[in-house]
Amino acid sequence: MSVLVTGGAGYIGSHVVRAFVQAGFECVVVDDLSSGHREFVPAGVGFVDATVLDVDRVTRTLVEHDVQAVVHLAGFKYAGVSVQRPLHTYEQNVQGTVALLTAMNAAGVDRIVFSSSAAVYGTPDVDLVTEQTPTAPESPYGETKLVGEWLLRDAERAYGLRHTSLRYFNVVGSAVDDLYDTSPHNLFPLVMEALVQGRTPRINGGDYATADGTCERDYIHVADLAEAHVVATRTLIEGGTLEPVYNLGSGDGVSVRQIMTAVARATGIDFEPEIGDRRPGDPARIVASGELAARDLGWSMRHSLDDMVRSAWQARQAHQTP
After folding, report:
1. In its UniProt record, which GO terms are filed under biological process (predicted)?
2. What count of other Cβ atoms lies within 10 Å of the Cβ of residue 214?
3. Per-residue CA distances from 11 to 77, 128, 176, 226 (Å)
4. pLDDT value for 189
5. Less CB within 10 Å around the terminal CB: N or C of the chain?
């Protein structure tokens, strides 16, 4: 018996696969390598080069590998780009989830952990987001993640699918040097790439209503996130009960300027970031409570901000050249 991880060749997905392997699970990965990397999948883990939109291929994979549960991370994740590419985003994230659920139903697999997002909340008018905070996504990406949660809910009603969705915020760091964030849109790789190239990192907006004028966000280490997926999946396999959604948050925001200061400490590069204009739609603060996940999934922030930055820089230095 095994666990299928869709998107398991990506930055987050590959960390999730490693966590499952370390916990003694057999895994198989389905990934079309549109943003993932084949070398991120460890030796001994089955790999299928396919899109989740391919119902027949995914169904065969589920049957051939005797899959017990699915962790669904595959999708198009760039909120800003999704505004320019809404049809592509819906195809990958909504049609992809429909296709995956269709394959699971055909193969008799009835357990899934879904990778959701803080983007379902939009710009919440609260200091601390909880699972009861109203959802109001402001991008096609956020909308598709919310629709994905609805699909799981409706599948539960229709044929007893057992599921939970993990809503997470800003995932950073590296657990091992050979896995790193290669996104062209995420803050950590953008800042570190700028430093490697001799450019000054940029902050978008310095006049927000926060302690230092820059946006405050929830940053969590990818290894902590990966462990939460393992616990949630094991709970479903063992017949335990989970809530339909969990926030994986720190409960304590970190500002963009604090990130910059931590990067300077980790890299030894002394710099003063440039302050640019605000980006449209960037809320001043989005921070979530992780209390519910702590209760049911043993969720905790095991890594400090310096740990997050140091591990990301170490992986960047080890595997990328200027």
Report:
1. galactose catabolic process via UDP-galactose, Leloir pathway
2. 23
3. 12, 27, 11, 11
4. 87
5. C
Q: Indicate the pLDDT class of residue 322, thresholds 50, 70 and 90.
A: very low
Q: Compute the distance between CA of residue 131 and CA of residue 124 in angstroms, rounded to an integer.
A: 12
List pLDDT tens digits, range 112-130: 999 999 999 988 889 899 9
Cite the residue boundaries of each domain of the chain with CATH code 3.90.25.10: 173-217+250-289+296-319
Residue of 90, 141, 180, 208 with catalytic role: 141
Q: Which CATH class is domain 2-171+219-248?
A: alpha beta
Domain with CATH 3.40.50.720 in the chain: 2-171+219-248
Place of tokens 């966000």: 217
CB-based contacts of 220: which residues, under 8 Å, 6+ apart? 168, 169, 170, 171, 172, 248, 249, 250, 301
CATH topology of domain 173-217+250-289+296-319: UDP-galactose 4-epimerase; domain 1 (3.90.25)
- pTM higher than 0.90, yes or no? yes
Is 270:264 a contact under the CB 8 Å cutoff? Answer: yes
- Nearest-angstrom CA–CA distance, 175 and 40: 12
pLDDT digits (tens, 9 = 90+) for 276-297: 998 766 778 889 999 999 999 9
Query: Tokens standing for 38?
Result: 């084949």
